[in-house]
Fold:
Amino acid sequence: EDQVTQSPEALRLQEGESSSLNCSYTVSGLRGLFWYRQDPGKGPEFLFTLYSAGEEKEKERLKATLTKKESFLHITAPKPEDSATYLCAVQFYGGATNKLIFGTGTLLAVQP
Amino acid sequence: DGGITQSPKYLFRKEGQNVTLSCEQNLNHDAMYWYRQDPGQGLRLIYYSQIVNDFQKGDIAEGYSVSREKKESFPLTVTSAQKNPTAFYLCASSIRVGEQYFGPGTRLTVT
Structure:
């Protein structure tokens, strides 16, 4: 069964303390992996698309990387405004390719 | 400004009543989606539509219905057959499947 697992469920960092979030997947064939940010009570906001192992994308303090089994979202010197839930989603080949499978997210809290 | 809107933000209904959630987009996207989000669970796909007058069931379609009569609009009806309708409902649209633009969501409470 195709699955997406995110870890940790929650992460508390001090401002400036860098860390990484993990998204692992078991799939028959990965078509794309996507990262979103969700603030409390709001809809998710698209961040990155990754298509192949070795690919990296960056935006401000965030960098997303992809291997054959997992993706990491690295957060460098985070600020309190980076606090949010970060969601990972994957699109698979085969079956219903026109939909995403979402992980349950990592709730990130950055304290000043 | 281009975007996707959902209304209302909060909705309260009595058990046994059908309720319709609105979703409108002016991004000129062909594809639209409805998700349900519950605490501790990932977004689960209810229905999606790739083109006007066509839609497909997602993973949890039972107790829900949709229509897609216009490109801009994709309303979701939560029927009395949905056993646990209280949730946060999110609508999205996209050109590419992975890059979806989400609305602000509707929080439905059924008592």
Summary: Chain B has a mean pLDDT of 94.
